[in-house]
Amino acid sequence: MKFEAVTIKDIAKALGLSTSTVSRALRDSYEISPETKKLVMEYAGKINYHPNPIALSLKERRSRSIGVLVCEIANSFFSQTINGIESIAYNNGYNVIIAQSRESVDREMLNLQYLTSRSIDGLIISVSTETKDFSYLKELSQKGLPIVFFDRIVDEIETHKVIVDNYKGAYDATLHLVSNGYRRIAAVSNPESLSITKERLAGYKAALTDHHIEIDESLIKYCQHGGMIVAEVEDAVNELLRLPQLPDAIFATADKLTTGCLRILKTKKISVPDDMGLIGFSNTDLTELLNPPLSIIKQPAFEMGEVATNLLLQLIESKRPVTDFETRILSTELLIRGSTKKVKPKTTEMA
Amino acid sequence: MKFEAVTIKDIAKALGLSTSTVSRALRDSYEISPETKKLVMEYAGKINYHPNPIALSLKERRSRSIGVLVCEIANSFFSQTINGIESIAYNNGYNVIIAQSRESVDREMLNLQYLTSRSIDGLIISVSTETKDFSYLKELSQKGLPIVFFDRIVDEIETHKVIVDNYKGAYDATLHLVSNGYRRIAAVSNPESLSITKERLAGYKAALTDHHIEIDESLIKYCQHGGMIVAEVEDAVNELLRLPQLPDAIFATADKLTTGCLRILKTKKISVPDDMGLIGFSNTDLTELLNPPLSIIKQPAFEMGEVATNLLLQLIESKRPVTDFETRILSTELLIRGSTKKVKPKTTEMA
DNA sequence: TTGTATGCGTTATCAG
DNA sequence: CTGATAACGCATACAA
């Protein structure tokens, strides 16, 4: 693969045939005699011939590789998704090229240029928290690059999207807190510009409203970098603790934020009331064993990866009309920790 | 990138130049007049020209992409390593193609063929637990494919290797148990064939010996699939609990095994004595907040990825003689949880 | 300073 | 049934 580089030409020369004959024999073309075929096949096997995929790509104008752009690979949710993506890609003979934005628009843009210039056949992406301008992505999409969004989607772009039922997940989470006696529930969330933020906060608010708890916007904190900067979550919690009326529980709307809050509560770096409730979206391994949180909303990350990849491959291989886009909504799972109800009665209503 | 595909030819035609002139102008060749250069550059920018990297690869016989093969992406240790790999690759203009073996030799082989036939410029790999025959890898290496091993290395192959100080990590871990009063310390480990297993068990045994604790081979359990199969770890623990003399602590030699044991201990799916000690290698987020384990041996996964990639790029770009191979040994970190000493005095020595 | 021709490895088209 | 040739997009040795 580096030095030797056996090519069709070598085979042709050795066997006294033309390259076209060899090429056809290798592809088992009907217009080649069985004897020649066998001859070629056997020799090719013997000298361990492998077609050069780069030459193939150049000819076929496809690379059989897909790009994956996420904010951070070392985030359980995303690594689980990539796991699912790889598994489908592998089964279909596609390579997976990964890149991370680290929640930075600049890096996202650069990686995007990089990936597309690398001639990927399609893209699976979850946009960064910083991204507000999606024109570049839109342009790519319009130029014909098959794109599938997952998790953090972009509504304006017409293509497949794979998300979880964020509204319901957040509703369930909030409900769980409410039914455990919490009333003043804060939300630590990603920037408002993200689709998941909107959906999750909507679910959170609906759950509160349905239980006659007034929504207090001062209880909602936005972390501009999605918790990539450690201090950010601390600041959010600190601000909450400085409120005239303390919250009695926190709903963290994303994996990174949940683990951030968890760490704060457990390490007591900031002094937080002992009975502070916590629930959050999280796919981090073992989080469900921790105490807090009260419970965890888990996303079917692996499945999301699988679904997204299947859709992308359909797009690439145009198995379905490129205009017939759909949004797949998978359901989240509320992992309930029975033993963790810290606040039990708390019948004194407030607000 | 899909439909339009602006090529050098288009520019040449539009500007009434030859393709070679355009090519040279774009590469800022000294033999092109400033005016022509400016003309070409500007037009190229205007119509948003990007060279086709596939054509380039075919010509230059390099793809500017590196392959990464690990057993499982959704394992914190590996995803952190990939994070490091991506970061260095990104800075050097390389793409990262990932694949996972899922601890299966077959998948490893297939992926290897896949990656190499994809014309990667180099490979970073941590072999699967199942792999016992490294001839294919050796062959690749001898054919000239730059390879860097990390974590689970292959001694027989002469190339760069990046590992952590497994011996010391295991020694420290075992010592920590010993100094907390544990005496009958079991080991739940990966297959013996892995380099890390040998090194870690050696450290474990040395720590015991140094403290005059007899080594009992029946206390060492090997998980053939590295904990990929859930029941495997349970079986190991069950077997330990059936021993005539119960262990009083477990040393788990790898991330997946540590979390496996942890889950067993916490969920009490198997009834394990309450004061069972546990320590293990783990890079899983938040593991250090759990209680057990007693402590965690953390590997500098991100740094390993960085170091491995730097070495690989040196190999690819032959910045150093290809014969001058080295093994980088990074040090592990023992994260001590002060408050967790379950067994304190236990002065009654045994065995 | 610019243009022409060739090759990278493969397949498709067209002859024979 | 088989072979010569062009083409994919680019870079470069060689001409001019």
**Helix/sheet category of chain A:** alpha/beta
Distance between the termini of chain A: 71 Å
> How many separate domains make up the residues of chain A?
3
Q: Total number of helical segments of chain A?
A: 12
Describe what you observe in this structure:
The structure is a homodimer of 351-residue chains. With 351 residues, chain A is of the alpha/beta class. Chain A folds into three domains: 8-51, no CATH class; 63-164 and 301-329, Response regulator (Rossmann fold), CATH 3.40.50.2300; 166-298 and 335-340, Response regulator (Rossmann fold), CATH 3.40.50. Helix content of chain A is 42%, strand content 15%. Chain A contains twelve helices and twelve strands. Chain A has helices at residues 8-15, 19-26, 34-46, 53-60, 76-91, 105-117, 135-143, 166-179, 195-210, 230-241, 255-267, 301-316, and strands at 65-70, 95-100, 122-125, 147-150, 160-164, 185-189, 220-222, 249-252, 277-281, 295-298, 327-330, 333-336. A six-stranded parallel β-sheet of chain A has the order 2-1-3-4-5-11, with helices on both faces. Chain A has a six-stranded mixed β-sheet with strand order 7-6-8-9-10-12, with helices on both faces. In chain A, helix 5 links the parallel strand 1 (65-70) and strand 2. In chain A, helix 10 crosses helix 11. The longest helix of chain A has 16 residues, at 76-91. Chain A is elongated and about 90 Å long. Mean pLDDT of chain A is 90; it is low at 339-351. Chain A binds a DNA duplex (16 and 16 nucleotides) through helix 2 and helix 4.
